[in-house]
Specification:
Strand order of the largest sheet: 2-1-7-8-9-6-5
Largest sheet: 7 strands, antiparallel
Number of strands: 9
Number of domains: 2
Structural class: mainly beta
Distance between the termini: 63 Å
Strand content: 35-45%
Shape: globular
Order of helices and strands: HEEEEEEHEEEHH
């Protein structure tokens, strides 16, 4: 069962109108530098900083998020899928889909509650979803000509279904100060190695001695 802090719980129990905004935070690899970089988007009208778990984050507003359906919480280890639409016209969204490698990027979705009378933030935004970006597709409506970036995300339980090469690869290992320990992981098990014995005859009928000792 999800628990909320006292100010948030009191806001839910007031039975008054609730002013809520959705915050999306992604951490993706920069294609040029290979470094992980973060990007925040929210449904507010202007850019704004929010503190999440004691760390300030800047979220870009002004229509970057076009549509996001209600997020339904679910217990257990089942993989939850969520979909939302971003505006490819937003410079921040363009950075996410072009400068960054968004596939499998970490993502968090929070909800910020504001007092409908004062407009002040009720409490620190609470998290609704945590997982990875599964798919990004930019489409254009043939009738209206409107472009949208549809993003499908999977909950953290998706990590349990990822194969080993997706968890550890040469590209990911190089982020550790250029470590090339996994440079041959893609061909591991496919190359014959002979130690202290004769190799099979070549196509011309010759043989080569193994170099092992």
């Amino acid at each position: 069962m999800r628990s909320f802090d006292a100010p948030t719980l009191a806001q839910f129990q007031n039975r008054t109108a609730i002013s809520a905004r959705i915050l999306i935070w992604a951490v993706a690899r920069n294609r040029d530098t290979g470094a992980d970089e973060s990007l925040g988007l929210w449904t507010g009208a202007q850019d704004r900083s929010f503190t999440i778990a004691g760390v300030p984050r800047t979220y870009v507003g002004a229509g970057a998020i076009m549509d996001i359906p209600p997020i339904v919480s679910q217990s257990g280890i089942a993989v939850r899928m969520q979909r939302f639409s971003l505006s490819p016209l937003s410079p921040a969204v363009a950075t996410l889909i072009r400068t960054y490698d968004a596939r499998f990027a970490g993502i968090e979705i929070h909800r910020a509650l504001f007092d409908p009378v004062t407009g002040l933030l009720v409490s620190e935004p609470h998290r609704l979803f945590k997982g990875i970006i599964d798919e990004v597709a930019v489409t254009t409506d043939p009738r209206s000509g409107e472009s949208r970036c549809d993003v499908t995300v999977a909950s953290s339980a998706r990590y349990l279904t990822r194969t080993l090469p997706l968890k550890r690869s040469d590209a990911s290992q190089q982020r550790r100060s250029g470590d090339r320990f996994l440079r041959y992981v893609d061909v591991s098990g496919e190359v014959d190695v002979y130690w202290g014995e004769k190799r099979p005859a070549t196509a011309k009928g010759g043989t080569k001695e193994g170099g092992g000792s």
